[in-house]
Amino acid sequence: LVTIGPIVISERLRGTPLASVQTICRSHLQLTHPDEYLAKACDDYVCLLDALLFRSETEQAQDLIAAWTKRSIGMAMPELLGKVYSDNDVVGRLFSSACYISDSWPSVLYLAYKYANKPEAGLLANTNLGGDNVHRGFVLGSILGMASNSTPNSLYDDLHDKAQIDTEIEALLS
Fold it and tell me: Whose CB among 24, 84, 112, 139 lies 3.0–4.6 Å from 143's, allowing a Cys bridge?
């Protein structure tokens, strides 16, 4: 799902209809991951990003994430958070921290819901949970960025090799 977020945002901002974006994303996903459960998660991810991208000023991101979680995996996040004591109770016990989408997608939705207004805390929680945290983190970061309308730049600014990365980015862009 890593490459799906940029496709969704660029296509939807170009005016491509949502159904067409879902088709594009499914076709892209099928190139390397021909799995029906993953394709369904992809559709749900596309719709969640779209809902966040085009939400009204009165719509709360956390409510949208909860609604899409219910549609996608049939779980009520407010109830789950009321029963769970820590992130480790969910990611690691309820869902595996492995890369299988059947566990990582629900983990992403859980973290996105819990940390919808605290993207830096959500990304740090994801990292500290271990397992396949890089893939989860990319998808989670896309959702949290759209949910909070912010980016935790301090995480990037604190990278040891930030200057080298900036140079590489500039080379790619020029």
Answer: 112
- Residues 6 or more apart in contact with residue 16 via CB below 8 angstroms: 24
DSSP, collapsed to helix, strand or coil, labels residue 95 as strand
pTM: 0.89
**Total residues belonging to the chain:** 174
Residue the block writes with tokens 């490459």:
3
Q: Could you give phi then psi for residue 13, rounded to 5 degrees?
A: -70, -20
**pLDDT tens string 76-115:** 999 988 887 799 999 988 888 888 777 899 999 999 999 9
Residue partners of 5: CB distance under 8 A and separation at least 6: 45, 49, 138, 139, 142
